[in-house]
Specification:
alpha+beta; globular; single chain; 22% helix; 1 helix; three-stranded antiparallel β-sheet
Amino acid sequence: MRKEFEIHGCIEVPPEMTEEEFWNRFIRFVEENGWSFGGGISEIRDGWYILPDGSRGSHVLDGE
């Protein structure tokens, strides 16, 4: 039998931590526990999604 948890939320990190550093640490934690993760990651600064080029995208509350 397979059991899963779906996560909806944000994790606040120090401003100097990069997305790549966070992602690597998060995945390491998951794998060290024998778990797996399927999904993605989005960077948010001050309520705005950050696009891959570093520019500001839409606000997290847009579309609600």
